Amino acid sequence: MSHGVEWALHCCLDLVWLAEEDRPVPTARLAEFHDLAPAYLNKHLQALARAGILGSTPGKRGGFRLARRPDKISLLDVVTAVEGPDPAFRCLNIRNQGPGDAVMGGSGRRACVISHSMRRAELTWRRELAGTTLADLAEEAQQHAADVAARTRRWFADA
Amino acid sequence: MSHGVEWALHCCLDLVWLAEEDRPVPTARLAEFHDLAPAYLNKHLQALARAGILGSTPGKRGGFRLARRPDKISLLDVVTAVEGPDPAFRCLNIRNQGPGDAVMGGSGRRACVISHSMRRAELTWRRELAGTTLADLAEEAQQHAADVAARTRRWFADA
DNA sequence: GGACGGCTACTCGGATATCGCTTGTCCGAGTAAATGCGG
DNA sequence: CCGCATTTACTCGGACAAGCGATATCCGAGTAGCCGTCC
What we know:
Two copies of one chain form a homodimer.
Chain A: H1 3-17, H2 27-34, H3 38-50, E1 54-57, E2 63-66, H4 75-83, H5 99-104, H6 113-130, H7 134-144, H8 148-157
Antiparallel strand pairs in A: 1-2
The structure holds a DNA duplex (39 and 39 nucleotides).
């Protein structure tokens, strides 16, 4: 899995803390916060914006902000926005190639049992990610350190 | 996810049908059956052998065979053997870099909530794969087409 | 005819190139604020 | 002093290279069967 997912998730969580501010947050600021390559982070934030997770405002005081309420953004939304909608395991139906196809009796008519099980497993993974929202993460983080939101807002407010 | 996983799974399922035969199956034969690159398939079968899933016998009548009973080989075993033991999502703790670390209050002391959720989701995925064995796949495949085993054995027996 | 030694063919095993995708960077389009000028 | 046109600085957005892992291939080590020869 690409690192962009991690970057996107962290930045989304930051934007949860900064959601109360009505000013969008520029990419450069988020990159500085996490010590990341600004342009590359921008690329991923664009993907989130295309997916409708973030709203982008160009111009001098522009930046990104959450497009929906945190409890309406699941981890699966972020992952699929960055990684793409394709499943991790895609069965190319090699069984349909070569003599193995004929043995199975048909040109890929039957659903591949391997693909079936792999998709089932991946579905549970997706379901787990879909059941967790940014709000859940924020709540859990605040249980660990109650002043995270205030500290984060303060840092982003500075110069 | 790499294609090698699919190749490995299909070949393992073939080896289930051919488990009754006491002669190992060469890589070239499996490659021909699925119309795959023989040398590259061999590479993945080597990985399965290193993991103790397949047993390899060199020499003229050599080849691969299942090292354990099919109900003792889970899909997770095959996947980890090919893909490696590392989790798909590895949190590099970017929060420990840059000012964000100080805001969180500590040099990575606190466990990252993002990493926590991602690992939980991946754990469900692994659990699902660990709960499915080659024997389960074989049974399911035979429910679809009862004569798969016989057909496969016949093809591999031919010249 | 039987047994033994060497030979050959075939297989795994790892070292070696090639390719595609993720990573990383750059510059242009566009917008809001700041600024200077005129009334 | 107030309003407006212009300039400017800053931001997103997509187009453009570089690095690394998966893909694909080849050759060497080793073994089992086969063949010829000798007893």
